[in-house]
Design brief:
heterodimer; A: alpha+beta; hypothetical protein PF0899 fold; three-stranded mixed β-sheet; about 30% strand; elongated; B: alpha/beta; Rossmann fold; two-stranded antiparallel ribbon; 9 strands; about 15% strand
Chain lengths: ~120, ~290
């Protein structure tokens, strides 16, 4: 599905950052993905090698941190954990909530070598 | 760039940027940088740019999303018939194959551009940008972007639209918002289509569908209609008229709008100067047609 497009976009970003930092090989890529981003972590993991082949990130390890869904209630002000299809306040059950986390689809960190060994 | 505007820093990851700075050395001497960039940064830049195209011409852009066969094209046909004299409309059609939908729209006397995505399951901002260059937007009031029929992927890609509409036909099941929360959460308006069939269906409860939408913390209006029979389309047409008026007001006040779900960072995006490069050069002077190489 669209996870391959996302990985291709990720590789574009990683290549740019590698160039900016004189990296010769990207070793580890950390992502943060929440259930409300619309991207599935296992599908990203499967699509990644296809997008990375032949690039500076070809041998990089992809580590994906799953970010929990959390909401803040606009009615009672409390924060609570929620599930992707039930974003109700865990305290007063109101639906007037705002999302605090859970929709991330973010490249958080890169580790790389700057010279060939 | 976006990585400096803070839009990706959420409560879940802010600890990463409050440490000892961006570039650090790991124990084995490797370099590491904290990035915190959205994975669709390039797409999002293009989307911001598309939105400027629309805003410069005072156009309201609407993205229609649904499963295949929920009635997106039928909704557009009925809308063009009802409002064709009131507004000037253009349509961008996204499908894997065929020109069929664009042809249906052209048969109503409205310009339509078909994007054939091949195997791609969604439209992205670059495809829409290319399409915009092939459409004559002079005097257009509303651009509808009919996304690829799919309740999953289109929700992740900003196209530069101002509003998202998610259609749910009553033949599909009233629990779709619970099953596909991302796309229904992105909706500024949910339309329950083919509602004339409700009388012969005993397993779709419109109230339940609305409850599932509310459980996504969404306050989007949920309207019922049957476009092919012109049943109950007035509320939809009124919503659209209001949105056109709102867009004109926003443009006058030099404001813009992204669809539902606006994290704080997006407000910055609307007027953010990105240092990304465009494959072509043009100005964004309002009301002046710009030339593209």
């Amino acid at each position: 599905m669209h996870e391959l497009s996302i990985c291709q976009s990720l590789i574009d970003q990683v290549e740019g950052l590698a160039r900016d930092n004189q990296a010769v090989a990207v070793k580890t890529i950390w992502l943060q993905v929440g259930p409300l981003s619309g991207a599935e972590i296992p599908l990203l993991e499967h699509a990644y090698p296809l997008a990375a082949v032949g690039t500076v990130a070809e041998d990089a390890k992809l580590l994906i941190e799953s970010i929990p869904v959390r909401v803040r209630c606009k009615t009672c002000g409390e924060e609570s954990e929620a599930s992707a299809n039930r974003l109700l306040c865990g305290v007063c059950n109101d639906y007037h909530t705002e999302l605090i986390s859970g929709d991330e689809m973010v490249l958080s960190k890169l580790e790389f070598d700057t010279q060939t060994h | 760039m976006c990585d400096t505007c803070g839009c990706n820093v959420t409560r879940g990851n802010q600890h990463l940027v409050t440490g000892d700075g961006k570039l650090a050395r790991t124990e084995d001497g490797r370099a590491a940088i904290t990035v915190l960039q959205g994975l669709l940064t390039e797409n999002d830049h293009q989307a911001v740019h598309n939105r400027q195209h629309f805003d410069n011409r005072e156009i309201l852009a609407i993205n229609l999303m649904s499963s295949p066969g929920a009635g997106k094209t039928a909704l557009l046909e009925a809308t063009i018939e009802a409002l064709g004299d009131e507004f000037s409309i253009a349509v961008i059609e996204g499908d894997l194959e065929t020109e069929n939908d664009a042809q249906r729209i052209r048969d109503k006397g409205v310009p339509a551009l078909q994007i054939s995505t091949g195997s791609a399951c969604h439209l992205d901002a670059h495809m829409v940008h290319d399409a915009l260059h092939e459409l004559d937007l002079d005097g257009i009031d509303i651009v509808f972007i009919e996304n690829v029929g799919n309740l999953v992927c289109p929700a992740s890609f900003d196209l530069g639209q101002h509003r998202n509409i998610t259609l749910l036909s009553v033949t599909e099941g009233d629990d779709k918002p619970a099953k596909y929360p991302v796309i229904f959460r992105a909706a500024d308006l949910v339309l329950l289509t083919k509602a004339d069939l409700l009388e012969v269906l005993d397993d779709f409860d419109p109230e339940k569908a609305e409850q599932y939408v509310r459980q996504l913390a969404s306050e989007a209006p949920v309207l019922q209609l049957a476009a092919r029979r012109n049943v109950d389309i007035d509320s939809w047409l009124d919503w659209l008229r209001d949105e056109v008026a709102e867009q004109r007001k926003r443009v006058k006040n030099k404001l813009t709008l992204r669809p539902a779900i606006q994290p704080e960072g997006l407000i910055l995006h609307a007027d953010h100067k990105h240092d990304h490069h465009h494959p072509h050069s043009h100005t964004h002077t309002r009301h002046k047609p710009h030339s593209h190489s």
